[in-house]
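User: Predict the structure for this protein chain, please.
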Amino acid sequence: MKPLVYQTIPQMLARTANLFPHRPAIIFHGKRWDYQELERITQQLAAGLLSHGLQKGSHVAILSENTPNAVFSLFALEQIGAVACMPNTSLKAGELKELFSISDVDFLMIGSHYKNNDFYEESIEIQKDYPLKAIFDISAEGSSPYPSFTELCQTGASCLSSAPFWDTGFLSPDDPGMILYTSGTTGSTAKAVLFTQYHMVNGGIQKAAGQAITEADVICCALQMFHIFCLDVNILAALATGACLAMPKDLHTASILETLTEDACTVFSCVPCMYQAIMDRPDFQERNQFQLRTGIIGGAFCPPEEFQAIETSYGFTLLPGLGQTEAAAGIALGGLSDPLGLRSTSVGHFAAHSEGKLIHLETGEPLPVGEIGEICIRTPLLMCGYYRQPDLTAQVIDKDGWLHTGDLGRLDTQGNLYYAGRIKEMINRGGEKIIPGEVEALIKQIHTIADCKIIGIPHPHYGEEVCACVIPVPGDAPDLASIQNYLKGRLADFKIPKYMAALDHFPMNATGKIKRSQLLTLALEQIGNICSRQYGCDPSSLIQENKPTT
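Assistant: Here is the predicted structure, written as structure tokens:
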């Protein structure tokens, strides 16, 4: 744990550039920038943006793939006191306009593209009925009609030639600095999460401390910049310590593997499916000459066996973490000295500079050790709130400052936190509460099943019945009876699935989370005939508008 500092991002950049001026700050596709260059380019770009009408308090969206120019742009916006708004790069114009509207975006910075999403084409669509003051092209090519990254830096350099230093006295750590967006997996509208510069600075410092990062480390940036996971664990952790940020040329497994080896990365944080996808590459073993030391796994549940396999395969100390966009420094993090058995089953202790508790779902009273309840956290590093949505903010942060995460968990006697799923995903079968994660973990042990999600199916008597949505291992065809037989004696009867839906894939949103409302629809399509025969009705008519599992 490091002490909290009252500092802005520009102040942190100036400090690090002064301490480590010639240490590499960013490596990208064979090119390097040291911290002195990072500060110089940031200031030139900031001056160029000021000359084009930006000012302190402007809301500016960065719609870009991971590139050094995107990092420079983020720091330049913080340099002038603008608010960097970070939408998902997979979103289309209609979705982006909705986010821009709820967060008062008035400027846009675009990169080239992400997958098949051409940012210039999307910008044209956005402008048809959303008023933007200006758009800037921060791609390496700079081939659009908008002012380019190079032009902005050249303009800024000219401006700075008469005033070659920045006075950051007009900035305060309490100034709004960034807006991130929550993803809606349950059909709800995304919300704009507002942070100050103080939040972001200290989020990076604490995540760096948790991994013992120093200026000698090289951090592989294999997460997308619009995620809090990437911002605090990668970008701001590097800035806080003088570590080097190694950026793959894209987020394909081949590029990430190349970055890990060619740039001698020592820190690699990622989501479980990406770790696994890289391990599944045919050239993984021959290129496995890593110098990795540690990394954080998060973003999705990881079974203990998979956790242990990842740690062994990469040869580093893997740290479990639990995060949420609303908490700048996360909710919980494992320790480097924790034994593997603990790290693979828990999500660690509550984050530094935070208080945590588990509460009863109905009474709200604190729960004793071992009982499952809602995870709540109180810390100076919580969001300011949902931008211009005080009523929604009050629904998740109570009058005493506790964030109600919507996550389920339990604590042991040593203060270790064990994740148990989302409250909205919990199934209520005739008054009996079923936690999907408990059932999923067991079903995933069946050798014919590659993945599993447990959902509640509407039922006229019990309210909900348990359904196992499974992705079979290629070439296998698991059936409901085999699943039920495997679970008998391992689970109470009311937790055993009554239905099964075999799928090729799970529907995902733009951030890679399962869209449970669509998953329910797919499951109902498969089991609809069964429901119709049993209950004499269209099963879709049983879906309630506000059903917790959707």
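The chain is about 35% helix and 25% strand.
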